[in-house]
Each structure stands twice: as structure tokens, then as C-alpha cells.
Amino acid sequence: MINRLRAALKLARLLLHLAQGLWQVWRFFPTWHPLQKQQRIQAWAHTLLALAAIKLEVHGRPPQDRATLLVSNHVSWLDVYVLMALCPCRFVAKSEVRQWPWVGKLALATGTLFISRRSPRDAMRVVHEMTAQLQAGQILAVFPEGTTSNGRQVLPFHANLFQAAIAAHAPVQPLALRYEDATSGQLSLAACYIDHDTLLQSLWRTLTAPALRVKVNFGQPELPMGRPRQHLAKALHDQVEQLANL
User: Fold this and answer.
1) What is the rounded CA–CA span in Å between residue 126 and residue 184?
2) Strand 139-142 relative to strand 113-115, pairing
3) What is the pLDDT of residues 194-245, one digit of tens each?
């Protein structure tokens, strides 16, 4: 009973934090410089993780100031906020995220690029937009599995989005996310968002679990070097898989 009351208090604080984020987006983002926006986004994401009792453990070096395509495994709705807290990046997300209450509006305000998974033409549009963003020096983050997994394995990567890095001659940097029990260090499934989970169910399971730690392992960035996107996707998949098992 006490655990559920604590989780309810965490949930109330998280909802208030989301509401404050939306208010800031509406009130200040239209006049803020991009650097001000990014600093606020990173601070806001750090606070969200703290409110959810998620500890960060980072290995390797995230990109900070040069065009990079970040490639990660995908476990939880928390993944986006973990990466937001660590580096100034924009995300590519499925179009359904835009319809999520509150979260969709925040994603749109932070520059997320939305892609319809059912439309090859829309995928081509997003690749062109990603290429332009990389050429402009932006850091983009993608989850090429195309869906979430339970964190025990890395699903095969879809290769289409890698074409943007090839076209922009931009480096690709692998990373892996692993959610663990903060005390024992054992893999935790509490933060997973898979199968028939609703966002609320996954959120509640995360908040009622013992304190969690997310381990973030960054690999070394590498240039496409003329490789076809399928070969590049396979090479990065293997690296993410290795990082996930460190």
C-alpha cells in the first residue's frame, strides 16, 4: 500500500512536470534562442528522470557539437528522455507519438521528425529532411529496430534511415540502453513498453518498481565510407548488440 502511495505521488509530480514543460513551450519557446531551448530541454529531461527515480550511468562520450546520426536500441518510452538529458539531439519517431496526450505536443515542440511506418513515400520524405538536418550540423537520434523490445536482445535494424548519414557524409554513432535494478544491477523489465502495454501501464510499472538505473554505453562514431545502407545497418546493429552486453 505504501509503495502504491509513493508511486501515485511520483505520478502526480511527473504530470505536473509535463504540464510545466508544455507551459514553457507555449510561453517561452517562440522567443528563445536555440541554445536557450536546448539547455532548458536537457535540464527538463534530467528532472523528469529524477522524478521517476531513474539513475543515469554513462559510459563513453555522447556527441555535443557536430552532425551525428545516433543509433540506439529501443526499450522504453523513457529512452527519448534519457538521450535528451545527455546531448542536444532531435529524434525521428513514429507518427503515432504525435497523438499521445501531452507527450506528442512536447515531441513536436522539441523538433521531432515524425514518420509514417506504413508509407514508403513518407519514409523517403523523412530521409531527405534528415539529410538536410545533418548537413546543417544537427545531431539526430533514431531507433532503427522500428519498435521496442524487452532489452534482452537487439532486434534487426531497418536500413532506410541510414541513407541520410550516407547522403550527408555524416558519422554514425552507436549506443545501447540497459535498464537495471539500481541495487542489484540485474536487468529490469519494469521500464519496458512492449506488446500490448499502454503508455499508462508502462509508466505505472516503472513508478512502482524499485529504483532503476539506466546504463548508457556510447560507442565510437564512424563514417559510412561508401557502404550500402544495408551493410551499414548490419555493422551498427552488431555494435549496438555488443554495447548492450557490456
Assistant:
1) 41
2) unpaired
3) 878 888 889 899 999 989 999 999 999 999 998 999 999 999 999 999 999 8
Give me the CATH topology for the region 2-244. Glycerol-3-phosphate (1)-acyltransferase (3.40.1130)
* C-alpha cell at position 124: 523517403
The Cα 171–Cα 231 span in angstroms is 15
At residue 197, the pLDDT reads 85
Per-residue pLDDT at 238: 96
d(CA 134, CA 171): 9
Taking alpha carbons only, the member of 125, 129, 135 closest to residue 111 is: 129
Strand-pair partners of 92: 113
Reported as a single tens digit per residue, the pLDDT across 9-18 is 999 999 999 9
* Type of residue found at 178: R
Q: How many CB atoms lie within 10 A of CB 20?
A: 12
- Report in angstroms the alpha-carbon separations of 130 from 35, 66, 155: 20, 14, 23
What residue type is assigned to position 244 of the chain?
A: A
pTM for the whole thing?
Answer: 0.92
Q: Return the C-alpha cell found at 217.
A: 554505453
Q: What number of residues does the chain have?
A: 246
d(CA 234, CA 216) in angstroms, rounded, equals 21
Residue type, 91: F
